Amino acid sequence: MSKKDRLKAQSEKQLILKKELERQELAEREEAFAGSSKAGEKLRRKARKGDNIITLILKLLMILPFGYSAFYYGGIFIVGIATGEMVGMPKRIAVFLGIGAALCLAGLFLAFFSRYILQFAFVAAGTVSFMYSAEYIISETQKKLELNYVSDAELQKLDKTYMTYFYPLIIMTVISAALLAIYIVKRIRKKRAEQREKDNAPVKSIID
Question: Between the CA of residue 22 and those of 6, 26, 34, what are the distances in Å?
């Protein structure tokens, strides 16, 4: 074999060895990436489980202020205004109370279906409508207390008592906003994780 043939054979052996090393390196990188992906997915599953428990608790907590303020006391005042028992109170106040309670109820259902953007929109709109009527009732009560002498100590604090009936609904709105914030944070984290996986994905070697 001539010197030229020996050099050519040696060059071919080196090229084959180089290709083999590149294939081995690529296989190791893919194996490492698969292992890290499995570990990452396991951690993400645990995180999702923890997040689901927190969001479930928040959703259940939303029921309390809704049931107390919008459903129970809201219902009492709607009936009282509609039947004329609350003298001098415009019927529109009952309408806005009803609309607010209905919107908050819709938001509550949407929260349990994990429609976090819509649920916040409904709860926020419902709270605004409900509190419009609540503030009107409290304001009118305060005016009546200022203009009329009331000997009963309980009646003297009637406006503050009404505040304890209506204001807890704001807690529902705060929880609704918290659910939306958690949803946004989770979406951002998911996008970032997907981008990291995309950036760290193994790239096949280009063999000349």
Answer: 24, 6, 18
